[in-house]
Inverse folding.
């Protein structure tokens, strides 16, 4: 699930810890603030001091265990290195409760907006709450260094796939997590054995298209950047499209058979 | 030596009397009360009766005026119990206890510095903010004023001591900048020992965390053709 960070570039799913990361949100008491020097020289903020050229705002917040990067690798590089401007999106990671039953429940949560992060030798464990995602403004290229310094952990391929699935389900109701959910719902509409076959068929076709949606653009983008010969690119794409067709045909056959069985019963 | 700010509470006046006169016992003697009564006021000032609060206030005004008029602070109790020619041979303590403290105040000299500074709006404002902040810090009543936020970094005893010192500093500051300079070390103290960062939050259980399926493992759906679901996210 985890691996130690390497290289300077930030990656999707990288985990950070820093004192200035907060799970921040606004409520109805949000108001613009202005900074001023209080008596004795301390920095202070007041709504009465708000000006057009300041962007301070009264918000609420709490301290997360860590935060996890939700942007893809290329976008993070664009913001931090190429442009030196923009915002990066993070989700706060919160600690697991002490009660074993609650910990177990959270580590198996089916909620789309929560990514369980199991305890490991490298990490104490927690839950990334995608519903509380927030952004951090990057004001200059110089910000890239501090970000990399505050990264404590990266997700391995398996961890990234889990995060992709949760994020796709939460943001767009797509992907393998949704496939599992709707497959289970479909099975509940049918008798036991045909229900399980229908579930498998739906899960198969949805997870295949999910894979191809990410994989085919990646093949093309990578080929353009790397100068891959066109015949190699086309062969790769074709292989993935054929896999979609094969899985879709198998699912269609299974569903036709199940439909016939149900009609006959 | 501390002096009175505007509108001190009876409890604050008892504290100041004890400081000026050197002890609870000496304060009790000047007020004509038992030392246990004084301690009772200090512990539960809300139970102090109006007549007692008036007596404390009158005594505090007299002693405050004496302290700011050059009387030896170590001899205040002794001076108060001695007969004064200006009072026709009566000791001030008798007049205070008889509700005639104003007669004592009439014969005491006006402290020139105090009279001059009393009309400075910034000083009055700061004295008020100091009282509010000390009440918040020591009594848990309301928020600290921004000018005295550093009280968070002080212990109870330090905050109490700061109150006495700050009142003296306010009286002796000719302008706001001088008083700000007096506060600077306290702000540095706060900067050097910021409040502890709260512990990281623990995620709360959501009713839907149980899910429709007890095992919501999707590992089998992530593995396609021997590899993970692939996307641009895994470019590197």
């Amino acid at each position: 699930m985890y691996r130690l960070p390497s290289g300077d570039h930030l990656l999707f799913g990288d985990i950070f810890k820093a004192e200035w990361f907060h799970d921040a949100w606004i409520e109805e008491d949000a108001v613009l603030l202005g900074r001023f020097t209080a008596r004795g020289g301390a920095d202070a903020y007041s709504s009465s001091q708000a000006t057009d050229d300041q962007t301070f705002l009264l918000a609420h917040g709490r301290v997360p265990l860590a935060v996890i990067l939700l942007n893809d690798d290329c976008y993070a590089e664009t913001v931090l290195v190429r442009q030196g401007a923009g915002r990066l999106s993070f989700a706060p990671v919160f600690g697991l409760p002490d009660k074993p039953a609650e910990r177990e429940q959270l580590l198996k949560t089916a909620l789309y907006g929560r990514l369980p992060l199991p305890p490991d030798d490298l990490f104490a464990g927690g839950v990334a709450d995608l519903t509380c995602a927030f952004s951090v403004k990057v004001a200059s290229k110089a910000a890239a260094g501090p970000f990399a310094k505050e990264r404590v952990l990266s997700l391995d391929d398996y961890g990234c796939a889990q995060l992709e699935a949760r994020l796709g389900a939460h943001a767009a109701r797509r992907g393998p997590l949704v496939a599992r959910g709707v497959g289970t719902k479909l099975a509940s509409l049918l008798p036991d054995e045909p229900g399980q076959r229908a579930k498998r068929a739906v899960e198969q076709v949805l997870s295949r298209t999910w894979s191809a949606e990410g994989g085919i653009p990646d093949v093309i983008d990578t080929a353009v950047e790397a100068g891959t010969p066109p015949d190699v690119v086309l062969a790769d794409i074709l292989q993935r499209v054929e896999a979609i067709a094969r899985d879709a045909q198998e699912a269609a056959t299974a569903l036709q058979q199940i439909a016939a069985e149900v009609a006959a019963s | 030596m501390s002096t009175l700010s505007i509108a001190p509470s009876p409890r604050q006046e008892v504290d100041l009397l004890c400081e000026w006169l050197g002890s609870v016992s000496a304060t009790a003697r000047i007020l004509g009360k038992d030392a246990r009564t004084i301690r009772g006021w200090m512990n539960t000032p809300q139970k102090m009766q109006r007549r007692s609060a008036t007596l404390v206030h009158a005594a505090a005004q007299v002693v405050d005026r004496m302290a700011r008029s050059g009387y030896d602070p170590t001899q205040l109790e002794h001076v108060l119990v001695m007969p004064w020619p200006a009072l026709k041979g009566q000791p001030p303590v008798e007049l205070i206890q008889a509700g005639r403290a104003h007669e004592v105040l009439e014969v005491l000299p006006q402290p020139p510095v105090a009279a001059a500074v009393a009309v400075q709006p910034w000083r009055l404002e700061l004295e008020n903010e100091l009282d509010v902040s000390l009440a918040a810090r020591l009594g848990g009543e309301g928020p600290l004023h921004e000018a005295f936020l550093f009280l968070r970094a002080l212990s109870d005893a330090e905050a109490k001591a700061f109150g006495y010192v700050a009142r003296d500093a306010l009286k002796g500051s000719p302008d706001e900048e001088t008083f700000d300079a007096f506060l600077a070390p306290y702000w540095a103290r706060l900067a050097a020992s910021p409040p502890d960062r709260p512990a990281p939050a623990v995620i709360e259980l959501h009713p839907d965390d149980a899910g429709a399926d007890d095992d919501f493992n999707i590992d089998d759906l992530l593995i396609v053709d021997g590899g993970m679901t692939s996307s641009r996210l895994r470019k590197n």
Notes: Chain B touches chain A through 46 residues (CB under 8 Å).
